[in-house]
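Hey all, quick one. A colleague (J.T.) asked me to put the adenosine-5'-diphosphate job into the tracker so the inputs and the structure tokens live in one place instead of scattered across chat threads. No bug as far as I know, just bookkeeping. Sequence used:
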Amino acid sequence: MNFFNEVIKIIVDYHGMLLEGLGYTMLIALIGTVVGLLIGIIIGIVRTIPKSKSAFVRVIQKIVDVILTVYIEVFRGTPMMVQAMVIYWGYAFASGGNTLPLIPAGLFIVSINTGAYMAEIVRGGIISIDKGQFEGAQSVGMNHFQTMFHVVIPQAIRNILPSVSNEFVINIKDTSVLNVIGVMELFWQATKIQTMNYQIFQIYVIISVMYFIMTFTVTRILRLFEKLLDGKNTYVIHGSQSDPNAEIKITEEAHG
Amino acid sequence: MNEPVFQIEGLTKNFGKNEVLKGINLTVNKGEVVSIIGASGSGKSTFLRCLNLLEQPTGGQILYHGEDITAVGFNVNEYRTKVGMVFQQFNLFNNMSVLKNCVIGQQKVLKRTKEEAEKVALYYLEKVGMAQYRDAKPRQLSGGQKQRVAIARSLSMDCEVILFDEPTSALDPEMVGEVLLVMKDLSKSGLTMLVVTHEMQFAKDVSSRVIFMDGGVVAEDDAPEVIFNNPSNPRTQEFLFRVLNKDI
Ligand SMILES: Nc1ncnc2c1ncn2[C@@H]1O[C@H](COP(=O)(O)OP(=O)(O)O)[C@@H](O)[C@H]1O
Ligand SMILES: [Mg+2]
């Protein structure tokens, strides 16, 4: 079996490069997703600020809203590969030839791109929360930020977790476009190995498997995380009629 | 005893072209328990929601201890800690335990320490008979239990007034009693209560005053004995005839 021997040889010879690529891919995808989610949450909170009574503040709110809409539409409406080129070479152009360090550039590009998608996902998550949750918070005197931070966003995040996990998986795969600016992620490493041993098919089979292991693992871990967030389906009742110190454990019935 | 908490004058509220409140005049004194009755759509909820500014009034004036609550610079959030609200659909925070529901507002708005807030919360949870369930999540409770927690949540803010918007309408019949019992206890504690309700027995027995709302105005405002035995407005008679005969 020639193929398997060649694959094993590539792994043995180039495992350092492959692992470095895997590391950068995971790093950029993870940080890009987390930062993107934070961007999405901040935009979600800003966009739901109630209209001010003051006309001046209302104008500012409108301007901010337009800027955010443009950001979201532009970054969702163009390929990330093109965004990477524009940002990387745009910086070089503007700074008179200096280039951004590659890994931070990659992190920036994936974060800001993911943020645009997350903004829409978070918006959907916020809309899905019952109006009563906002009113309950207002009725005890919470302001907009307290309401969002303590009541709405935690519930929204739980609801959007499947979409967030989907974005993470997309990012693991799509960091590969960063090879156009030379970020040393997995795909870029493959293109380098390819120039050294020309076994293109074998190399890309290897990184396919590596991408798949990453996405599969991440999906499973996040699904576990979702279960964890749902909390225990049991609770303790403190005290009973006969014994004030009794602790009775109740298991919730499954809802249909 | 006749210290006014609310002085409401000419309160109007429009939703677009729909005039829902058409000039409400009402004074509520400290410690009063006012039941608000009236047909569905007569503006009862809108009125309560204007009182704690969940709806912005269109016109007129609401004074709280003499202070105009719609004035620019009025601290709405601080006001809401004093004027609590209990909703038909409970609106407990779904992501928090019973205890946390009663603690979070105290911590974040009143800036109490966690220990202090928990002590207050447990005191009121005990009062509504829900202290045992402090660790349960809202989804693990029955409707009546949820509503009792919602009452404790308002009380934990050390509020002076609670606005109740049909607190028992979403409950299964066998749970209505437990909530009304808690409210009856509260009515003796000096808390000022405004209660929109379809529970005529409660209005009759517990409240110090009954208001009949009709078409966005206060059509009749009197002691419960008068409203239920000898109403002067024919619309009140008609309404009571309809709702009371439904029960027979
Ligand atoms: N947010 C709203 N937007 C538009 N119309 C509303 C809104 N809330 C209430 N209304 C209208 O106001 C009227 C009175 O409603 P409501 O105050 O809920 O009456 P009640 O509580 O007495 O049944 C109804 O016709 C209702 O359709
Ligand atoms: Mg109503």
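Adding what we noticed when we looked at it: Chain B has a mean pLDDT of 95. The first strand of chain B starts at residue 4 and ends at 15.
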